[in-house]
Write a structure and sequence with these properties.
Elements: H1 2-20, H2 41-51, H3 64-79, E1 83-84, E2 92-102, E3 108-112, E4 115-119, E5 125-128, E6 135-145, E7 151-152, E8 157-158, E9 169-173, H4 196-205, E10 210-214, H5 217-220, H6 224-228, E11 234-237, H7 240-244, E12 249-253, H8 255-264, H9 269-275, E13 284-310, E14 321-325, E15 332-337, E16 340-343, H10 346-364, E17 372-377, H11 386-393, E18 402-407, E19 419-423, H12 430-439, E20 445-448, H13 462-467, E21 472-476, H14 488-499, H15 515-533, H16 547-553
Helix pairs in contact: 2-10, 10-15, 12-15
Length: about 550
């Protein structure tokens, strides 16, 4: 929380300096026309019903669902009078993907001497490969416990201590080391070191044959049922050289199986986990080997990011860009849960895409701002932020001319709030635009993420833009609901994650109240409009982890 106070003070000082200079306050610029009133619950629900309908088959990349989703978005953008966003005159940026499906329901064997343990597919472990190959395997690969698998020189932290992992399999904990010193990592906030994607990147860096992450619901932020969804087809960018550089096998094991593994190794899981929370930790060879064989079905897919453009009115500033983003994809048709096999993704992320269309309509009904607005809906977010990764590294418009991104990933479906959560609160002065817009909505207040330990800032598409330096605004539902008791918001969050997150039951619910989503979208609209007119670009706060990338991108 200390960082929040520092950043807020910085922003207030900056705003005071602007005011003293006699310049207009960019955070409170009057917005002409009726764009705000163009965002309403009826239009929002109409879009959601289409996007979450069974006819779109769960919106998986490379399916009929993708074709129908793309056609709908393009028709809606065209009907608003927006221009195709690709400079080649189309609405699409092609994204080459490879789909990999494990087809043989393998078992995994742990062995030590004459002792053997067999792990059951889906129930005990989930594994895959990102190699573009018909098969992948671990064959008697030595297991090495590497704690949290973190190398953070800025904190003097190294979980590897020079160990050679070539041909071996890392067993690694999810999330950051839970250290008492709040100066290390993010305190209660998960850093990127805690993300599962980082753990697999570490396996590739250290040339490990395999990486197995120990699943713990609290530390991961979701139940093992979410991991079980990874037994369906998985996508990655079709970059064979990079794919083949990854570990042969990546996966997760349940906490119970991890504890049994450590017992087989003559170790105590809880004791080693506690030791892993210290700088002194060093890798522990477990004296156990792992074997598993995967048979894969491969499929090359030409997926797409959908992009529309509202050209700015200023002859110079129209070559600078403010991006609104919401991912269109979900999991398609998969394993049945309670008789339902279509993963409709109504909340995640039909609501966000509907919000993108609603905000686009709000911009389309009035005079454009000075800068150009891009409305981007990316593919394969659920596969590891793949579509936004492709855009950020193959941008249609220069990253050093991209002023900001506003990301919408799941809207509030439970009613109005007196607050609004900003994931990554204090990261940039985009917060000040949001603060001003919130105050105009009956003195709403900005609050930091209520669950910082879950690392949401690293789990959605804005992260790929942040990595290349673009200031990113990732708002979410507030937690204090008007007319509800103080526990209502967090209870609804927990219920959604436990029962519906990444499951077929993520459908439109009869008790949905989209008044809160409208309230939030009107705020996002104001933020983007004002940023698109401001004399000064938004900036990362001093000391922010992405500031250096921005400064590097702006160098001549």
């Amino acid at each position: 929380m200390k960082g929040i106070v520092r950043h807020s003070s910085l922003f207030l000082a900056a705003a005071f300096a602007v005011a003293c200079g006699g310049e207009a306050n960019p955070y409170k610029e009057k917005i002409p026309g009726d764009g705000v009133s163009a965002i309403d619950t009826a239009v929002l629900m109409r879009h959601i019903r289409v996007l979450a309908d069974d006819s779109l088959q769960g919106r998986a990349p490379g399916t009929l669902g993708e074709e129908r989703t793309a056609a709908y978005l393009e028709a809606q953008f065209s009907g608003m009078g927006l221009k195709p966003g690709n400079p080649d005159g189309t609405w699409e940026q092609k994204v080459p993907l490879v789909g990999i499906t494990v087809t043989n329901s393998p078992s995994m064997t742990f062995a030590k001497g004459g002792a053997r343990a067999t792990l059951k597919w889906r129930d005990d472990f989930v594994a895959w490969t990102k190699h573009v190959s018909a098969s992948a395997a671990l064959r008697n690969s030595e297991l090495v416990f590497v704690g949290y698998g973190v190398e953070a020189p800025e904190f003097g932290w190294d979980d590897f201590k020079g160990v050679d992992l070539k041909g071996k399999t890392m067993v690694v904990l999810v999330n950051d080391p839970p250290v008492a010193d709040t100066a290390l990592f993010g305190g209660a906030r998960m850093t990127y070191y805690g993300r599962w994607t980082y753990k697999y990147e570490q396996g590739m860096k250290h040339k490990a044959a395999g990486v197995l992450i120990v699943h713990e619901t609290k530390e991961a932020g979701y139940p093992f049922a979410v991991v079980q969804g990874k037994t369906a087809e998985q996508f990655d960018l079709a970059t064979p050289d990079k794919n083949m550089a990854r570990s042969d096998v990546e996966g997760w094991i349940t906490l119970d199986q991890a504890k049994a593994l450590f017992k087989m190794a003559g170790q105590d899981f809880d004791a080693l986990k506690a030791k892993a929370a210290t700088k002194e930790f060093a890798p522990v060879p477990l004296g156990v080997t792992a074997s598993v064989s995967l048979t894969n079905k491969l499929r090359n897919v030409q997926s797409r990011n959908i992009i529309a453009k509202l050209e700015g009115r200023d002859s110079t500033l129209k070559n600078e860009y403010v991006v609104y983003n919401a991912h269109w994809d979900y999991f398609g048709i998969g394993a049945k849960v309670n008789g339902d096999s279509i993963y409709n993704g109504a909340s995640d992320n039909a609501t966000g895409v509907a919000g993108l269309l609603a905000v686009a309509k709000a911009f389309a009904v009035l005079t454009p701002p000075k800068r150009t607005i891009l409305f981007l809906s990316v593919t394969a977010e659920e596969q590891g932020l793949v579509g936004s990764q492709y855009y950020a590294t193959n941008p249609l418009y220069p990253i050093n001319k991209t002023v900001a991104i506003i990301n919408m990933d799941g809207l509030n479906t439970w009613g109005k709030t007196s607050d609004i959560v900003v994931t990554g609160y204090g990261a940039s002065d985009l917060d000040e635009y949001a603060r001003a817009a919130a105050e105009e909505q009956g003195k709403r207040v900005l609050v930091p993420d209520a669950e910082p330990e879950k690392g949401y800032y690293y789990r959605s598409d804005h992260f790929n833009f942040a990595k290349v330096g673009v200031p990113a605004f990732y708002p979410g539902s507030g937690v204090t609901f008007v007319g509800k008791d103080s526990t209502y918001g967090m209870t609804k969050r927990a219920e959604y994650v436990a029962n519906h997150y990444h499951k077929p039951s993520d459908d439109i619910k009869p008790d949905w109240d989209l008044s809160g989503a409208v309230q939030d979208l009107q705020l996002y609209y104001k933020v983007g409009y004002r940023v698109a007119n401001a004399a000064k670009w938004p900036e990362w706060a001093p000391g922010n982890e992405f500031r250096a990338a921005r400064e590097a991108s702006l160098k001549p």
